[in-house]
């Protein structure tokens, strides 16, 4: 009996072996035939090798329980499960100001202007009517006021303190943010004081403290140091506190990269660096982890919000900061990003409204709480068409 079982097993094994040969030979021949000479329409239900099933009503059916499209089937359900919204109160609207009494369009930033103090107030009035309540001011300073120590940056009668007072007079509830950096006032076009072609850290901080105090005295609600000197957040916090401005906030430009996307802004302020670049203080675009070092320092030094700049090319940095810290995160959708959208829209290559609103939503999805954008007013106008938010 045992021998019979052995024999039978052997026969089976040999048979398998022979069949496997046939299989190896047949497979390539069959697939060659399919791909080369068969022009018939693919039939998913072909008897013998059906690849698709039918349900009991004979309709095609790919058996799967999980179908994410159910949560996208109409706008009601889409808006029900939407994870983020964009609303006017998310925005800080940057405004360029100058001492001339006319408004002048910036050629590389269509529909953005250097405002006179009068047209600045008109722009704010309109923006406020659409729900934009926060503004950041950038002055264009005439050349004769630019010096190597940027003393004009803390002139109490300078354009920024004057503008702050005018805005606060008319709109006491509007939030005013100021940029703390020396470049608009520096004869060298750098964010700090230059000595022997070097941007000197601690000496620059001394000037930045004076500038921040002057902004606070004029009524600024938030000062935003954009200079990237080491230790400036703590130093400015101490200076503000020692003058009694404990409730003036600091929005730190935490991860500000040495970026080509600032080009149009420098056109607007006529603040291109007089020599070299800003790589010895602004971050290397290659570095992501470095932003976390900057973030820990700014948190420890008393920053109230952290900013990443530019915005869209640096969404990963926004996300990293959001997950590594507990402070609100701001993103600056900078001049070059604005210019790109405007240029493509002008050519008819992009639907401006859709592309801009998508961009703003992407900021929110990446973890941004506050968006600085030259599109702020326009976005608020578009949002008003859809009930105030998307
Ligand atoms: C200067 C400053 C810059 C921007 C904001 N503050 C330019 C720079 O660092 O050279 C850029 C903003 C933009 O491009 O929209 N401290």
Report what the structure shows.
This protein is of the alpha/beta class. It has 2 domains: 2-63, no CATH class; 88-385, TIM Barrel (Alpha-Beta Barrel). Helices cover 42% and strands 17% of the residues. The strands form 3 sheets. The protein has an 8-stranded parallel β-barrel, surrounded by 8 helices. A hairpin with a 2-residue loop joins strand 4 and strand 5 (109-115). Helix 4 runs parallel beside helix 5 and helix 5 packs across helix 6. The longest helix is centred in the first third of the chain and has 36 residues, at 2-37. It starts with a helix and ends in a 5-residue tail after the last helix. The model is unreliable at 21-29 (pLDDT under 50). The site of ligand PBG has 11 residues, from helix 7.
Give a nutshell description of this structure:
With 390 residues, the protein is of the alpha/beta class. It has twelve helices and 14 strands.
Helices and strands in order, then pairings?
Layout (H helix, E strand, L loop, with lengths): L1 H36 L15 E2 L5 E2 L13 H7 L9 E7 L6 E3 L2 E7 L1 H13 L4 E6 L19 H12 L4 E6 L12 E3 L2 E3 H18 L3 E4 L6 H11 L6 E8 L6 H7 L19 H12 L4 E5 L5 H10 L4 E5 L1 H13 L4 H15 L3 E4 L2 H10 L5
Parallel strand pairs: 3-5, 3-6, 3-14, 6-7, 7-10, 10-11, 11-12, 12-13, 13-14
Antiparallel strand pairs: 1-2, 4-5, 8-9
Helix pairs in contact: 4-5, 5-6, 8-9
Main features:
single chain, 390 residues, alpha/beta, TIM Barrel, 2 domains, 8-stranded parallel β-barrel, two-stranded antiparallel sheet, elongated, binds ligand PBG
């Amino acid at each position: 009996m045992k021998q019979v079982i052995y024999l039978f097993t052997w026969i089976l094994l040999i048979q398998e072996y022979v069949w496997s040969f046939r299989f190896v030979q047949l497979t390539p021949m069959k697939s060659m035939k399919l791909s080369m000479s068969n022009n018939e329409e693919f039939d998913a239900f072909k008897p013998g090798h059906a690849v698709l099933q039918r349900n009991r009503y004979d309709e095609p059916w790919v058996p799967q329980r999980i179908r994410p499209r159910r949560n996208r089937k109409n706008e009601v359900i889409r808006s029900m499960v939407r994870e983020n919204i964009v609303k006017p109160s998310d925005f800080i609207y940057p405004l360029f100001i100058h001492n001339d009494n006319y408004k002048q369009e910036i050629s590389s930033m269509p529909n953005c202007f250097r405002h006179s103090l009068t047209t600045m107030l008109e722009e704010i009035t309109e923006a406020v009517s659409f729900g934009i309540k926060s503004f950041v001011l950038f002055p264009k300073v005439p050349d004769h006021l630019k010096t190597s120590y940027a003393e004009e940056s803390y002139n109490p009668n300078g354009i920024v303190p004057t503008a702050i007072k005018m805005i606060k007079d008319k709109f006491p509830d509007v939030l005013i943010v100021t940029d703390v950096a020396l470049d608009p006032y520096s004869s060298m076009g750098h964010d700090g004081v230059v000595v022997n072609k070097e941007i000197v850290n601690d000496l620059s901080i001394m000037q930045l403290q004076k500038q921040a105090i002057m902004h606070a005295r004029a009524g600024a609600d938030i000062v935003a140091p954009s200079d990237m000197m080491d230790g400036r957040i703590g130093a400015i916090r101490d200076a503000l506190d020692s003058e009694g401005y404990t409730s003036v906030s600091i929005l730190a430009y935490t991860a500000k990269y040495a970026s080509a996307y600032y080009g149009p802004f420098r056109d607007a302020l006529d603040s291109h660096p007089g020599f070299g670049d800003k790589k010895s203080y602004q971050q290397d675009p290659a570095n992501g982890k470095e932003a976390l070092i900057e973030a820990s320092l700014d948190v420890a030094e008393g920053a109230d919000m952290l900013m990443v700049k530019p915005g869209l090319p640096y969404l990963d940095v926004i996300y990293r900061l959001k997950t590594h810290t507990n402070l609100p995160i701001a993103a600056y959708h900078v001049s070059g990003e604005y210019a790109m959208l405007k240029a493509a829209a002008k050519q008819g290559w992009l639907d401006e409204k859709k592309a801009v609103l998508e961009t703003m939503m992407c900021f929110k999805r990446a973890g941004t709480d506050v968006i600085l954008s030259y599109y702020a007013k326009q976005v608020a106008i578009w949002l008003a068409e859809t009930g105030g938010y998307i």
